[in-house]
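Onboarding guide, step 5: your first structure request.
Type a short instruction followed by the sequence, for example:

Predict the 3D structure of this protein.
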Amino acid sequence: MTLPDLAPLWLTLRLGLVVMVALLVLAMPLAWWLAHTKCRLKPLFEAITALPLVLPPTVLGFYLLIAFSPRAPFGGAFLRLTGETLTFSFTGLVLASMVYSLPFAVQPLQAAFEALGRAPLEAAACLRARPIDRFFTVALPLSLRGLLTAMVLSFAHTLGEFGVVLMVGGNIPGKTKVISIAIYEQVETIKLAEAHGASALMLVVSFVLLLAVYSVNRRFPQAGGA
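The system replies with structure tokens like these:
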């Protein structure tokens, strides 16, 4: 077994960290709204959020590639604002990965917020805590299990991407060549020893991340539980 080239690994870890942080900023208010809204369109928004779970990555990657194209409204607006294209760029990988990993951040948080119930928030309201204070000092600490699970799952899911990142980012060394694409390239070029080294490394990383999820679930009680 040959030691793997670490450049794709560092790029993958960087992508995972950026996506995880960005998804938490997006997922927390969305999960909070889904957990508490009485809107009749809630099932529609839940279905849209969960769509990456069932949609083939190549299909999602294809439509994101079209949306990110300089000829498309979104991709063209980004090009005019920044002078750079979203396709075949690290920024494009981040946005595509956020779409692909969105349900892994939203669903654990939504479940934790729903399990929290109204009583702790009503008690804080009686103490004249503002809504923003109730969220950060009551709801979020009591939903720590869901928060940590969302962080680990969104990070781990981003590490394992292949179809979406290949469609949107291609295979540019040092820019969009993440470790899953590097492994695919090594297998195609019959560099099996290098592919074995990179795959073994990802196997260990993935196992440690899953172990962290289950350890978190055992250590922190579910919100609203006894």
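Each response can be followed by summary notes, for example: The two ends are 49 Å apart (CA to CA).
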